[in-house]
Amino acid sequence: MDNKTYLIGEVSKLTGASPKSIRNWEKFIGQVDRIVCGNMSYRYYTEGQVEIIRQIKKNIDKGYRLNFAADKALKALSA
Hints:
Blueprint: E1 5-7, H1 8-15, H2 19-24, H3 26-29, E2 33-37, E3 40-46, H4 47-61, H5 66-78
Antiparallel strand pairs: 1-3, 2-3
Helix pairs in contact: 4-5
């Protein structure tokens, strides 16, 4: 895995999760790098974080609630 990072719009396209959902899920995916440029703050997600978001989205689509979906995703990826 390389050190590629993705902006929130790219992550949304890759995972099918909305940018709003991704921002809400940040407490489950760990520290997100931010770069401030003037009045704007850009979020950069790692490939590992993108995979966690992808798994959370998949679990939510199966009908799991957010806390359980995130816990299940984190356990699956750490196994």
